[in-house]
Amino acid sequence: MPVFSLLLQAAEEAPTGPFAITPGVSLWTLVIFLILMVVLAKTAWPMILKAVEAREAKIRGEIEAAERANAEAQRMLQQYQAQLARANAEAQELVAQGRQAGEQLREQLATKGRQEQEELLQRARREITLERDRALAELRREAVELSIAAASKVIEKNLDTESDRKLVRDYLDSLHPAKS
Question: Which of 28, 40, 106, 172 counts the most CB atoms within 10 A of its CB?
Answer without folding.
Answer: 172
